[in-house]
Amino acid sequence: MSRSTVRALVEHRTFQNVIIAIIVLNAIMIGVQTYRRFEGLPVLVALDVIVLAIFTIEILLRMYAHGWKFFRDGWSWFDLLVVLVSYIPSGGAFQVLRVLRVLRVLRLLTSVPTLRRVVGALITAIPGIASIGALLVIIMYVFIVACTMLFGAHSPYFADLGASTVSLFMLLVGDGWGLIVQPLGDTVPFAWPFMIVYGVVSTFVILNLFIAVTTEALQQQTHSDPEPSLVEARILDELRLVREEVGSLRQEGER
Question: What is the pTM of this model?
Answer without folding.
Answer: 0.58
